[in-house]
Amino acid sequence: MELGKAGKETFVVHEVEREIELPAPPGEAWESVTDAEWLGGEAEIDLVPGGDLRIGEREGWVEEVEPGERLSFWWRLPEDQVATRVEITLTETEEGGTLIHVVETSPLAMLDVVGIPLPGRGFGGGTSARGPLALAYA
Amino acid sequence: MSTDQVFSALSDPTRRQLFTRLADGGPATATQLAAELPVTRQAVVKHLEALRAAELVTSAREGREVRYTVTPAPLADAVGWIADVGAEWDTRLATLRSQFSTRQPK
């Protein structure tokens, strides 16, 4: 979690970070990472920026795809008001394995402060809801 | 109480586990918590004190024991989110890791 200031408002970014090492090279690890059932059940991901994503009950869209290196996406549960961003990065270790680094961020308080519509509103309404968000976060 | 204190208190996985347990399972004593989690009672008491210092839990004496309760603090939502999402990733990554458990590094 980070704190920041925007005008007089203090905003909060919720963030969760995890890391594990897999005994396989990034190319192989990428295949397992993108075969996304480990993320929570039956999974369909259109692996292109802006592609649709459905994992278990969650729905969202893909933000970045760099095969063997990085996958980021936004998702939310049907009952959630807002989506969160997940970034998974893969780094080759000296032993030839892969370090998997996951960050899930809920930066919506910040987006609210700068006046950008939250993804909970107009979610699934085409690319217009996605572009500004991706830009704002980048 | 500062936000830093809260997140410093929750930066430890055992403390997060204790906090989540108290949040989900309701008030408990150190003895009860030590019986439920793979941690000694002494360590539980130490961790609970850190949570109490950050005002994440309150304590009340009951006979010879002290009962700890989660504080409905303004940050409870943030804290709850982080505990829940963290636990979800622990489970997911364990699943991912298990797909490789029988393999050797190349």
What does this structure look like?
The complex is a heterodimer of chains A (138) and B (106). Chain A is of the alpha+beta class. Chain A has helices spanning 26-34, 108-113, 131-137; strands at 2-6, 9-22, 43-45, 52-55, 58-66, 70-76, 84-92, 98-106. Chain A has an eight-stranded antiparallel β-sheet with strand order 1-2-8-7-6-5-4-3. In chain A, strand 5 and strand 6 form a beta hairpin. The model of chain A is unreliable at 1-12 and 108-138 (pLDDT under 50). Chain B is an alpha+beta fold and 106 residues long. Chain B contains five helices and three strands. Chain B has helices spanning 3-9, 13-25, 30-36, 41-53, 76-98, and strands spanning 28-29, 57-62, 65-70. In chain B, a hairpin with a 2-residue loop joins strand 2 (57-62) and strand 3 (65-70). In chain B, helix 2 (13-25) packs across helix 4 (41-53) and helix 3 (30-36) packs across helix 4 (41-53). The N and C termini of chain B lie far apart (50 Å). The model of chain B has no long low-confidence stretch (mean pLDDT 83). The chains are: A alpha+beta (138), B alpha+beta (106). Chains A and B meet through strand 2 and strand 8 of A and helix 5 of B.
